């Protein structure tokens, strides 16, 4: 029941936070395009990266609460480890030494970088709590091969190449009578208000969702070692690097109807589309959007609508609009995970877009939808 409550709460928080982040990301895209000052553009890039990281964290909370998988990509674990080590070095007490030892030829893994970062940060914070007088925290990474015997110990795990991440501290250790319970949701030895008991269960859930497994060794007074195994990507599995997104061609005056109950989102989407050569009509809720479309149907080329609005949900809006025009092209924006909406993608007709998105991502989506045959 507590997990179900967390899921409901996370959905509402995610929707509201993503609506707050959407105008920031889209607005930054516009400002970057207009600025010729290198320093201003650099600062905007930092701001954009921070906003995207915030959006990733929101998605991670929602994914954990609802048991869904995050976005995966081929990545070098060294970069994520280095980022976590740097952050922990700057924030942990000076009495704690943070070290990193990663093999130079570390294999790639298919992972969600935000989730992997969360795993390392959670384990780092736990290590801090286990070393009140200071100590040593070490992050190691190396390539290993898991044999058949080792794999059989962990149900569902296959033998083969893995990247092993080790997080080891010199702290107080975990008592033998509770070490079997440390991954249970809501189990914590910390006092009230000092821990939710979700840290290690989150870590285990993330590792398992990546096809990996965990092991823990601990001795009272001699520290704790967590070993995290992630399946390595072999050379034959590596895909070509993706091309960085770039602004699509400008519009040719096509009219786009934007339906969203958030005024800031409407304003920024309007400014973004108009600056790229489109004409925009606005509606603050579903019924108003249907009215605008009914009146200006002949000139409206596509509709951008939010999925979660008061009185009338986006899926209902799309259903009613399709009664007027079955071939209507729709961009459905959602502040929660796309898998939780009541609408599905249809090539050339319906595209799902996760809030918050960059301005370029929105423009690319609109352009591709209008160009679809």
List its salient traits.
373 residues; alpha/beta; seven-stranded mixed sheet; five-stranded parallel sheet; elongated
Describe the fold and architecture:
Helix content is 42%, strand content 21%. By secondary structure, the protein is α/β, with parallel strands linked by helices. Strand 8 (255-259), helix 7 (263-275) and strand 9 form a beta-alpha-beta unit. Helix 8 packs parallel to helix 9 (314-324). Residues 191-197 and 240-244 have low confidence and may be disordered.
Strand content: 15-25%
**Low confidence ranges:** 191-197, 240-244
The helix content, as a percent range, equals: 40-55%
Average pLDDT metric: 83
Task: Give the class from helix and strand content and strand pairing.
Answer: alpha/beta
Biggest sheet layout: 7 strands, mixed
What's the tally of helices? 10
What is the total tally of β strands?
12
> What overall geometry do the principal axes of the alpha carbons give?
elongated
The value of Rg in angstroms is 24 Å
Head-to-tail CA distance between termini: 47 Å
Q: Which H/E pattern describes the elements?
A: HHEHEEHEHEHEEEHEHEHEEH
Quick overview:
This protein is α/β, with parallel strands linked by helices and 373 residues long. It is 42% helix and 21% strand.
Map the helices and strands.
Blueprint: H1 2-34, H2 38-66, E1 73-75, H3 77-91, E2 96-102, E3 108-111, H4 113-129, E4 135-146, H5 148-152, E5 160-169, H6 199-209, E6 213-218, E7 224-233, E8 255-259, H7 263-275, E9 279-283, H8 286-296, E10 300-306, H9 314-324, E11 330-334, E12 350-354, H10 359-371
Parallel strand pairs: 2-4, 8-9, 8-10, 10-11, 11-12
Antiparallel strand pairs: 1-3, 3-7, 4-5, 5-7, 6-7
Helix pairs in contact: 1-2, 1-7, 3-4, 4-6, 8-9
């Amino acid at each position: 029941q507590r997990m179900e409550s967390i899921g409901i709460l996370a959905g509402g928080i995610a929707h509201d936070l993503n609506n707050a982040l959407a105008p920031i990301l889209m607005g930054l895209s516009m400002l970057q395009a207009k600025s010729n000052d290198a320093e201003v553009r650099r600062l905007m890039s930092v701001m954009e990266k921070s906003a995207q990281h915030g959006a990733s964290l929101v998605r991670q909370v929602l994914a954990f609460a609802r048991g869904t998988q995050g976005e995966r990509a081929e990545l070098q674990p060294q970069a994520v480890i280095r980022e976590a080590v740097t952050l922990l070095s700057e924030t942990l007490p000076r009495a704690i030494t943070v070290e990193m030892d990663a093999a130079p030829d570390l294999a790639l893994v298919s992972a969600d970088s935000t989730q992997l970062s969360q795993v390392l940060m959670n384990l780092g914070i736990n290590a801090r709590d286990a070393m009140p007088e200071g100590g040593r925290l070490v992050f190691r990474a190396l390539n290993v091969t898991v044999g058949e015997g080792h794999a059989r110990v962990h149900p569902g795990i296959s033998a083969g190449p893995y990247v092993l991440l080790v997080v080891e501290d010199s702290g107080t250790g975990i008592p033998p009578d509770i070490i079997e319970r440390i991954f249970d949701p809501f189990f914590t030895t910390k006092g009230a208000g000092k821990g939710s008991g979700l840290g290690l269960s989150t870590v285990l859930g993330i590792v398992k969702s990546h096809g990996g497994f965990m092991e823990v060794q601990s001795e009272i007074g001699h520290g704790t070692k967590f070993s995290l195994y992630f399946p390595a990507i072999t050379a034959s599995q590596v895909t070509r690097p993706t091309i960085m997104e770039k602004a699509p061609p400008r519009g040719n005056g096509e009219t786009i109807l934007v339906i969203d109950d958030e005024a800031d989102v409407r304003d920024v989407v309007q400014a973004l589309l108009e600056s790229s050569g489109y004409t925009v009509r606005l509606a603050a809720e579903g019924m108003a959007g249907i009215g605008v479309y009914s009146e200006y149907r002949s000139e409206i080329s596509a509709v951008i609508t939010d999925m979660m609005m008061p009185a009338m949900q986006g899926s209902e809006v799309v259903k009613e609009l399709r009664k007027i025009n079955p071939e209507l092209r729709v961009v459905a924006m959602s502040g929660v995970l796309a898998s939780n909406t009541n609408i599905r993608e249809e090539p050339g007709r319906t595209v799902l877009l996760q809030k918050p998105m960059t301005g370029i991502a929105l423009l690319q989506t609109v352009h591709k939808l209008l160009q679809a045959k």
